[in-house]
Amino acid sequence: MSSQDIPEENLPAEQEHAHGAVSVADEKNPFADPGLPPHEHRVQDIDERAARRSERTVALLFTVSMLATVGFIASYVTIDVDKSIYVWPIGHVSALNFALGLCLGLALFCIGAGAVHWARTLMSDAEIADERHPIEATPEVKAKVMADFAEGAKESALGRRKLIRNTMFGALALFPLSGVVLLRDLGPLPGTKLRHTIWSKGKLLVNMNTNEPLRPADIAVGSLTFVKPEGLEEHDHDFQTEIAKAATMIVRIQPDNIKDKQELEWSFQGIVAFSKICTHVGCPISLYEQQTHHVLCPCHQSTFDLSDGGRVIFGPAGHALPQLRIGVNDDGYLEALGDFEEPVGPAFWERG
Asked: What is this structure's pTM?
């Protein structure tokens, strides 16, 4: 059906916009302005039944988008991550990835297709020519812009086409939930486990190199030894996770050279135990200067004084190294008297 087949009284009233030739060529203006082509009415402009069919089509697309978003969330919750299916011609693929991709793509496509169909069939398609104007808008131009905006809002029929409006809002409101659900893949919340290590009262200090418990006599003055908690073995599935928090270094300093009172109380005969994890970004500390009792982090050169409570004397580290309180058990072996009193590693976890 074309506009020529419709009586003139049924055609929408034309807005006062120029169509056809607007100027002719002359000596001053050798190039004629052809103007805009005559406006052709769409069937939706003429037939309200066709307009309602387009409205229902757009609403259907937005509704399918909502269902696809719900399907995305349902797939994420119900499909096992290890399940695979055969999809021709791709072959065997992860059932979860296939379902998530299909639902997410369908949800996005239907929102886009619904918006395009709405614009092409129901919104005004009249071309408007505007004269160029200075960058700074005059009050009259501002008033015209606001009037044009109000007219555009009216022509979009957003207020009158309630079915489209409501389903569009529903699709746009539900779709972001897909991204929210995916946040779960960032892993479980750490809770308080980053504030604690597996050190506890009675756990022996085991030499990392020999895998043997240590006696005070095994630690010479000025030496540096790396230890781990008793029971933590390299073949354990969580070894790397636990040693990243529990790695500890012990040195033996003459008690008279220990400046910090608490450090002296938490030591045993000058043997002190500090976390090996730098409090800047968590690098392992391994460089020890015997004469000054300083340890240096090789990553960013944070330097700590092990004779003065492990305090920072240079570099970007935010606070002192946590100290582990130690003693000797009935068999004469060095043991921990508890966990570190504060979180090891970067200061972020203290503020968390």
From this structure: 0.51
